[in-house]
Design goal:
8-stranded mixed sheet; Aspartate Aminotransferase, domain 2; 376 residues
Length: 376
């Protein structure tokens, strides 16, 4: 096949005039940081998740770090561990390293490629302080079951919903199940601001603690006495800026359109890729998928690099999501028994998925992959 006339990336950020208008509004306003747009994003994300409170911060990793530090300060335990899964971004595992906790890696389901609740259940012990459960590619993990496991064993549940804003399980939205939920507003995400993130919670006490932790440990001005301030515990500067919030709010306002455009592309892939050769992610009944990514499996690991290079030669830039964390140098010392994840992670690729993919680009991606399947 002849290469495509221009590169087709696996993602591309989506900016329209309403996004630009919001940012210009900020630049003409009195606030560049922590102003009305930040407050509106916090309220809007709380509403999207069915939670009571939102705390915006500088990025999705900062959101996880703030939750980890809040738990660590509250529990004050020397011996502790967290549970997450290898098939996710490294920030979920770093949740444990931030607070000097051991990390246990739970295996994934062989068909949904999301963390398996039964594997989480096996790993929880008296020192488990949190389960960090990430949704994958736009499909929620089985949060009903994971929530039940964590409630029965009195373990804090962090729902990493970065891949799945507005996705649902049994009619309930992503971000509504965890004790807290976290989101990323990275440029690759549905709500793409360049950088940004948010934490959603039902607890006003947690809301207050997270606000203090994201701003150097400074108490809210309404709780200060005199003209000075006093700082007690370690904290960070993870404050958000108004430009990112302005972009985020514009994307939240059109989240249904952003999701539906991805679902239309996914439907074309579903109906036209050679699924006698490739394998796709199973979407259980009563779940919806919002397609942050469109991942597929190759029949064997040795074909993965060959396929990625074949696509690259045709100007299609697919990616790997994700290299398994438990096989990375910095994480090999932690517990893992994850044969399913090991297998999936060795065969998976993410093909182009973003709202402005043109029809001819989608057709070329499909034809290229199907041609590869016929010759390999």
């Amino acid at each position: 096949m002849k290469k495509f006339k221009h590169p087709i990336p696996y993602m591309k950020h989506n900016i329209i005039e309403s996004d630009i208008s919001n940012v210009v509004d900020v630049l003409r306003s009195d606030f560049l940081t922590q102003g009305p747009y930040v407050s509106n994003v916090e309220d809007s994300m709380a509403n999207l998740t069915g939670k009571k409170h939102g705390v915006m911060c500088s990025n999705g990793t900062a959101a996880l770090h703030l939750v980890a530090e809040m738990l660590n300060q509250d529990l004050n335990k020397k011996e502790k561990n967290i549970i997450t899964t290898p098939l996710t971004f490294v920030a979920d595992a770093n949740f444990g390293r931030y607070i000097d906790a051991e990390i246990k890696f739970a295996d994934i389901d062989s068909q949904t490629w999301t963390v398996d609740p039964n594997e989480i259940d096996k790993l929880i012990d008296n020192n488990t302080v949190a389960v960090v459960a990430p949704h994958y590619a736009g499909l929620m993990c089985d949060m009903d079951s994971i929530k039940t496991v964590c409630r029965n064993k009195n373990v804090f549940l962090v729902e990493d919903a970065c891949h799945a804003p507005s996705a649902t399980q049994n009619g309930l939205p992503a971000g509504s199940f965890g004790d807290v939920s976290t989101f990323s507003f990275h440029a690759t995400k549905h709500i793409g601001t360049g950088e940004g993130g948010v934490i959603c919670t039902n607890s006003y006490e947690e809301y207050e603690k997270l606000n203090v932790l994201r701003s150097h440990g400074l108490p809210h001005y309404s709780k200060r006495t005199g003209f000075g301030y006093d700082i007690d515990k370690i904290a960070f500067n993870y404050r958000p800026n108004e430009m990112s919030a302005a972009l985020a709010l514009s994307h939240i306002d059109r989240i249904e359109d952003l999701v539906s455009s991805r679902q239309l592309i996914a439907n074309i892939y579903d109906n036209n890729l050679n699924y006698e050769y490739f394998i796709k992610q199973l979407i259980p009944d009563d779940f919806t998928h919002v397609y942050h990514l469109y991942p597929i499996l190759l029949p064997s690991p040795n074909l993965r690099e060959k396929c990625l290079q074949y696509l690259k030669d045709l100007n299609i830039f697919a990616q790997i999501h994700y290299p398994p964390i438990n096989h990375m140098k910095g994480f090999k010392q932690y517990y893992s028994n994850t044969p399913v994840s090991d297998d999936i992670a060795n065969r998976i690729i993410s093909i182009p998925m973003f709202p402005q993919l043109a029809d001819e680009e989608i057709t070329f991606v499909v034809d290229s992959l199907n041609n590869f399947s016929k010759s390999n």
